[in-house]
Design goal:
This protein has ten helices and 15 strands. By secondary structure, the protein is α/β, with parallel strands linked by helices. About 45% of the residues are buried.
């Protein structure tokens, strides 16, 4: 099978297109013929030696990628939830070695869900790591309730555009930040209010928020703490909270923490249902063929992607 090996941490020149054996599957795994792969910021960070590079640096061959949609071609003897020919999608072994940049991937059956028939493989692949992050943060790490006030930073991005839709579905008053160019997109997702981060400081516009989802990190963490009310929650997903932010949150009575998304088939089933009902709509702004994986990485690395970037096979 065709696969892309990461020869070493660094630039996209470290990608090596290789021919590898189709992976064998265990008793609780299925073999998926990959049709689409979603590319995330963590793919880029890991490629350059950050992200989760420390967890997988000793894997050989090292194959990046976690988000897939495809067709089941074989099932392990202990699997009774999927059959050959099923169209499935999911996030593979995150945070571990997903090996998704390949024609075939061995996946624990417990991490997959059936792809809704009305959703293309490109859309399904897009609704994996980013959608799971938003879903787990808004429904498990925090519990968004009707009437709460929610702020989503970088609302036009991968995680952000899913978080806006989910928060609105959960009944919140939703505020999203993005550039003015993406205002209409954010509002179309269901946001009640938009803040142009280039012309306005969000802390001058909103206050007494129940929940803030920070997808950027840096000084945004401290600034976000200023607008969360006592008893509210701040979740930061790019980095951990530094000591001063933790102390500030504690003094203010704000629940603040870092989260990392986890592969979970039950959550994938929930996302599949939301997509089937038309509640959750993945936005794929660009697609690239497998041969142009480097270009897909460069686009994500630019930090200017609206929605998701997907690679097709």
């Amino acid at each position: 099978m065709n696969a892309i090996i990461l020869n070493g941490f660094g630039g996209v020149d470290q990608f090596v297109f290789s021919e590898l054996p189709i992976p064998a599957i265990g008793a609780t795994e299925v073999l998926v013929r990959v049709k689409a792969i979603s590319i995330n910021p963590v793919d880029v960070k890991t490629r350059i030696g950050k992200g989760i590079a420390g967890r997988i640096k000793n894997e050989h061959p090292l194959i990046l990628g976690w988000d897939i949609s495809g067709i089941v071609t074989a099932v392990g003897r202990g699997v009774n939830t999927f059959s050959v020919g099923d169209e499935v999608f999911g996030m593979v072994n995150f945070p571990g070695h997903g090996k998704a940049y390949a024609e075939y991937v061995a996946v624990p059956a417990s991490q997959l869900a059936l792809k809704p028939a009305t959703i293309r493989h490109e859309q399904a692949a897009a609704a994996t790591l980013a959608a799971l992050t938003a879903y787990q943060d808004l429904t498990q790490h925090a519990t968004i309730r009707p009437g709460q006030r929610v702020l989503v930073h970088a609302a036009s991005g991968g995680v952000g555009h899913f978080a806006i839709q989910l928060a609105k579905h959960l009944g919140a008053y939703v505020i999203g930040t993005s550039s003015a160019a993406n205002r209409d997109f954010v509002m179309h997702l269901g946001a009640d209010q938009h803040i142009d981060y280039r012309s306005e400081r969000f802390e001058d516009v909103v206050y007494d928020l129940d929940f803030v989802l920070d997808t950027i990190g840096g000084d945004l963490i401290n600034r976000s703490l200023d607008v969360v009310k006592p008893g509210g929650t701040l979740i930061s997903i790019p980095t951990g909270l530094h000591d001063s932010a933790n102390e500030k949150a504690k003094a203010k009575g704000v629940h603040s923490f870092f989260t990392m998304v986890q592969s979970n088939g039950n959550d994938m089933h929930a996302l599949a249902k939301l997509m089937q009902q038309g509640i959750l709509k993945p936005h794929v702004s660009q697609t690239f063929p497998f041969s142009e994986m480097a270009e897909a990485h460069k686009q994500v690395e630019s930090g200017r992607t609206v929605g998701k970037v997907v690679v097709t096979l």
